[in-house]
Amino acid sequence: MRTHRILAACLALTLSGAHAATQGTLGATSTGTFTNTFNGTGVRQVQILGLQDAVVTPDTGQFVPITNQGNNNYWGVADQFCVVDTYGGAVSLSVSADEYGGLDNQTLVARAANGSLLAYGMSFEYVPDPSIFNGINQVATTLVIPAGVGDPSLCAAGNVRKAVFAAEIDGVSVKNGPLPANGNVYFSTVTITATPN
User: Which of 57, 145, 154, 167 has the greatest count of CB atoms below 10 A from its CB?
Assistant: First the structure.
């Protein structure tokens, strides 16, 4: 990544008509020249790393979807992923799912092969400051995190927490208990797009 930035800067200098330094000649006085260039055309890049598929089963335990709202315990799973910004700046995460519905069209939907629908909830929070969070509902949701990790090698456990929990199956609430063992397997695909903010 660093090599690419250096090459881009060298190319920009070449294309901008920058001049090479000139050396002075040997004599009683000697004059040389050099050019100072301030190149603000670096390439800012973002990346999402460490995403994992979420799997909720009847054996999944209780957890808190949003850590600073500890009174809401649901049955589900949480994990963390990393958002990188080569400039360490704010990053906008746009989150959308392939289907919405259930609970008055206010949640995401996972579908079983037999047509059964499972409405579910999902939230994202910025790990360094859990007061920055967002849930997603019937429309694509955006969460702005204040600072992406500047170098992918520094991601560690991740800087964004993702939580997923079942809300209802075919119109019947399952938020306050484990996922029923009804023999169905439900799938939903979620897309996250990161852009510099």
Answer: 145
Give the pair of three-digit tokens for residue 175: 């938020």
- Can you tell me the distance from the alpha carbon of 144 to that of 91, in angstroms, rounded to the nearest whole number? 6
Give tens-digit pLDDT for 4-47: 444 444 444 444 555 687 887 888 888 888 888 787 767 889 99
Percent of the chain's residues with pLDDT above 90: 31
DSSP string, the chain: -HHHHHHHHHHHHHHTT----BPPPSSSS---B------------EEEE--------TT--EE-SSTT-TT--EEEEEEEEEEEETT---EEEEEEES-EESGGGTEEEEEETTS-EEEEEEEEEETT-TTSEEE--SS-EEEEES--BSSGGG-TT-SEEEEEEEEEETTEE-TTSPPP--S--EE--EEEEEEE-
Find all residues with CB under 8 Å of 57, minimum gap 6, and list them: 179
Distance CA 138, CA 158 (A): 26
Among the listed residues 85, 7, 92, 20, the one whose alpha carbon sits nearest the alpha carbon of residue 46 = 85
- Give the residue extent of every domain in the chain: 1-43, 44-196
Fold entry, domain 44-196: Immunoglobulin-like (2.60.40)
